[in-house]
Each structure stands twice: as structure tokens, then as C-alpha cells.
Design goal:
Blueprint lengths: L2 H11 L14 H9 L3 E7 L2 E6 L9 E5 L5 H9 L7 E6 L2 E6 L2 H13 L6 E4 L4 E5 L4 E7 L2 E2 L3 H28 L1
Antiparallel strand pairs: 1-5, 2-3, 2-4, 4-8, 5-7, 6-7, 8-9
Length: 184
Amino acid sequence: MNEFELKKNNQLEKKDKSSIGSWDSKIVKLCGKVNKKKNYYTTSSCSGRVVLLKESEKKARDLFLFRKHGKISFQELKKALEKTEYKGLVYFKQEPCILHVACFSLDDAQDLVNKAKLAGWKRSGIMSIKRNMIELLSTEQLSFPIMDNGSILVSDNFLKLVVKESNKKLEKVWKKISRLKELI
């Protein structure tokens, strides 16, 4: 077994350390297809999500006030905001799909980046030449402050628009995941 195969086996045998504890259902088939290829393995993934997040300079597990890897409703968002007791600045974020993949060679990395770009993952590229690591990233996202000092900063009509736009963007993201799966 070569060094790449050893790293791949070690990575794929690891317990899921994500904060949700499992792969997103919308991206699991794409990850499975990538991991079946001998020259690739995934190291992290997200199919896109909606979050309410405490403002912070540092990454920490307790920053999430709400998180969903799927479409949201106005009622879900409103309820999550109303039950938030945090008194600092809170951000709404609808984030795109992202996938990190280790590749056997630089040519393999470039090939997968090219396929991702064909599938619409516009912000995709090689992160590390030393490790042949790539980041595949889509562009559909929203981010803005939504609460401060315990008060919602926007109207219900604005929240309804945000829900509608976020759900549209998530649908676009999921189509890109399917297109990439077809191209691999």
C-alpha cells in the first residue's frame, strides 16, 4: 500500500468529527462516488446550510444558534430568532456547498477542479500543491447581521424574502452537486 492509499484508508476510517455528526444527505452520494475513485478521497463536506451565528473572531462549537442543512420556513427562522437569548451581534448565513478532496497527483487535482467548474462550482481550486488538496466551492450565499442586543433588526417581510431567496440558492447548490456527481 502506497502512502496515498494509507492516508485515504486512515481518513475514511475516522469517526465523523463534524458538529452534526454525519454527512449531509444531499452530498453523501457525491462523497461516496469521489471516495470510490482510487486517486481521491474526501476530507470534509457540506451540502449547503442556513445558520444563525454569534459574531466571533474565533471558530468555536458554541457559535451556532440555529443550523439546518435544508430548506427553511419563515416560521422556523422566526422561532429560532425569538428563542435566541444571546445579546451580542447575530448573523444570518446561507452558505453554499463545499467539498475538500485529497488527490493522488497534481494532474488528478486539476482534473477534478475542472469538472467542478463545469458543474458550476465557480470558486474551486487547488489549496495545497504539497498535499494535492483541493477545495470545491459554490457561490450561492447570503450573509448579514440579523439581531443585536436581543432585538431582530429586520421586518417579517424581509425575513420572508430571505427565506425565499435562501431556499432558491440551496436548490441551485443541490443541482450543482448532482451535476458534479454525473461528471465524475
